[in-house]
Amino acid sequence: MIDKEAIIELYRQENQAMVDKDIVKLNEILAPSMELRHMTGYQQPKLEWIDQIQNGEMKYFSSVEENIEDVKIDGNSASLVGQNKVKASVWGSGVATWSLQMKMEFTKNNGKWIIANQYASMY
Q1: Taking a C-beta distance cutoff of 8 angstroms, is the pair 87, 95 a contact?
Q2: CA dist., res. 50 & res. 22, Å (int)
Q3: What is each CA distance from 120 to 1, 3, 5, 55, 103, in whole angstroms?
C-alpha cells in the first residue's frame, strides 16, 4: 500500500472505530501522545478521548465521508483534511449531525503510519 492510500485508510478506520466503539483499533492507530483539539478549543489527550467514547460521554452514531483533500506527505510526516457528516451526542448534548472537518497529522514509525494529532472544525 502506498503512503497516500495508507493515510486515507487510517482516516477511514478511525471514523469507523469511533462509531463501533472499537477501543482496540483506536488505541492501535492513534499515537500515544495524540491530542484532539475540539471546536471549543479544548485539547483532549488520546486516553481521555478513548475513555469518553467507551463510557458513552462521546457517542458516535454514524460518520458519512463527504470529502478528503489536501493530502500532503513529507518524509515520515503527513497530513490531510477530511470532511464527514457525523451524527453524535457529545458530553450530554442531544443527538445532532455535524459537518465535521478534521485536519489530521500523521507520523511514520518503523514503516507504519499512525495518527499523531487532530484538529476539529465545522465546514
Answers
A1: yes
A2: 9
A3: 27, 23, 22, 21, 7
What does the block give as the cell for 62?
A: 454514524
DSSP for residue 75: T
Residue-wise pLDDT tens digits, 1-47: 699 999 999 999 999 999 999 999 999 999 999 999 998 999 999 99
Q: Phi, psi at residue 9, to the nearest 5°? A: -65, -40
Give the span between the Cα atoms of 38 and 19, in whole angstroms: 17
End-to-end CA distance of the chain: 30
Residue 9 Cα to chain centre, angstroms: 11
CA distances from 54 to 21, 22, 90 (A): 6, 8, 12
CA distance 26 to 15: 9
Edge-to-edge strand order for the sheet containing 96-109?
Answer: 43-45, 30-37, 112-122, 96-109, 77-90, 58-74
User: Is the pTM of the predicted complex or chain greater than 0.85?
Assistant: yes
- What is the grid cell recorded at 88? 453524535
